[in-house]
């Protein structure tokens, strides 16, 4: 999946994604929902369904969406 398609796909509801943290760790979020986009779509807030925790994720660090590789 190309990064340009991510914005539309993530708005469809519950999803899973993986991203690379600032420390270089790969973090996987299963069953999460995008709650908002910020900074012209560069960052997004996702709510983890199981815990209710909100995480801020930079769109360009996402490497997987619903089991599909995300590329630039």
Amount of helix? 10-25%
Number of domains: 1
- Beta-strand fraction estimate: over 45%
Number of strands: 6
Order of helices and strands: HEEEEEE
Tally of contiguous helical segments: 1
Specify the overall morphology: globular
Query: Could you report the average pLDDT, rounded to the nearest whole number?
Result: 93
Do you know the CATH architecture? Roll
In the CATH scheme, the class would be Mainly Beta
Q: How many angstroms does the end-to-end distance come to? A: 9 Å
CATH topology: SH3 type barrels
Poorly predicted regions: none
- Please give the largest β-sheet: 6 strands, antiparallel
Cα Rg: 11 Å
Helix/strand/pairing class, anyone?
mainly beta
How do the strands line up in the largest sheet?
4-3-2-1-5-6
Reconstruct the topology from this structure.
Layout: H1 3-10, E1 15-20, E2 26-38, E3 43-48, E4 54-58, E5 62-65, E6 68-69
Overview in brief:
It is built from 1 helix and 6 strands. It is mainly beta and 72 residues long. A 6-stranded antiparallel sheet has the order 4-3-2-1-5-6, with helices on one face.
Which terms would index this structure?
1 helix; SH3 type barrels; six-stranded antiparallel β-sheet; 11% helix; 72 residues; 6 strands; mainly beta; 50% strand
Protein described:
- This protein is 11% helix and 50% strand.
- A hairpin with a 5-residue loop joins β3 and β4.
- By secondary structure, the protein is mainly β.
- It is globular and about 30 Å long.
- It has one domain: SH3 type barrels (Roll), CATH 2.30.30.
- A six-stranded antiparallel β-sheet has the order 4-3-2-1-5-6, covered by helices on one side.
- The model has no long low-confidence stretch (mean pLDDT 93).
């Amino acid at each position: 999946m190309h990064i340009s398609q991510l914005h539309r796909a993530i708005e469809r509801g519950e999803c899973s994604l993986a991203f690379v943290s600032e420390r270089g760790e790969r973090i996987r979020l299963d069953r999460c929902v995008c709650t908002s986009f910020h900074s012209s779509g560069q960052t997004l807030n996702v709510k983890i369904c199981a815990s209710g925790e909100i995480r801020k994720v930079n769109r360009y660090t996402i490497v997987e969406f619903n089991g599909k590789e995300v590329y630039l």
